[in-house]
Specification:
single chain, Heme Oxygenase, Chain A, 0% strand, hydrolase
């Protein structure tokens, strides 16, 4: 399977997710709430551009089945996941107005700009490659943390773990993996290498997102002229 190749190429990065203090803090319930609040605000902005990538996938789809899949992903993210995100944020002290008024961090802008650029330039398979690392890795993280059996009872983080370890989210990750395996079949090596590059780059950006949330960094140097 092509996704096996993708995973092996990004394995060190993905293993670093599970060792990251932010992820570990969710798992054992020790993560400071202010760090999680920062993450939730930035993640909300990420989901907005994530929806735009799904919309591009529907436009670029060559079959009705693929168009339907991307449109369903767009609908579920826009109408269901983002509403759950808003409700969840409210539980931890973030109003909808605060979410809407959040300023994007440098890491967020780098991530979403990269995805949108590659999705705009490419075909349906580039779109799939752009979103795969996020969906798949969140499922891997959720399942890993659920297996640790530490944070599922936490007042705030337990629901987050349950969401990304759920059968529904596992099916979503599986459907994206199936799609990219089908689309990659028969592609020349040059194009497969290009998709692998996208996957590795988005995997690195995923790690940077965890690091950004842990340090609550809007820019590289909080006290620099960049914040004036």
């Amino acid at each position: 399977m092509f996704t096996d190749r993708l995973y092996e190429s990004a394995r060190p990065i993905w293993e670093a997710y599970l060792d990251h203090p932010f992820v570990k803090g969710i798992g054992d319930g020790t993560l400071d709430l202010d760090k999680f609040q920062f993450f939730m605000r930035q993640d909300y902005l990420y989901l907005i551009d994530y929806c735009r990538v799904f919309a591009l996938g529907s436009v670029k789809a060559k079959s009705l089945d693929t168009m339907t899949m991307f449109s369903e992903l767009l609908h579920s993210t826009l109408s269901e996941e983002m509403e759950l995100h808003r409700n969840y944020a409210e539980r931890i002290g973030i109003s909808r107005e605060e979410l809407e008024e959040t300023e994007p961090s440098a890491t967020l802008l780098a991530y979403t700009s990269y995805m949108l650029n590659k999705a705009n330039q490419g075909s349906e398979i580039e779109v799939a490659a752009c979103v795969l690392a996020c969906t798949w890795s969140y499922n891997v993280i959720g399942l890993h943390l659920a297996e640790q059996n530490q944070g599922e009872k936490h007042e705030f983080y337990g629901d987050w773990i349950e969401m990304y370890a759920s059968d529904e989210f596992s099916e979503l990750a599986s459907s994206l993996k199936t799609l990219i395996n089908e689309l990659a079949g028969g592609l020349p090596e040059r194009e497969k290498a290009h998709l692998e590059e996208i996957f590795i780059h988005t995997s690195k950006l995923e790690y940077m997102f965890w690091e950004m949330a842990w340090k609550q960094k809007m820019w590289v140097e909080e006290d620099s002229v960049l914040n004036t």
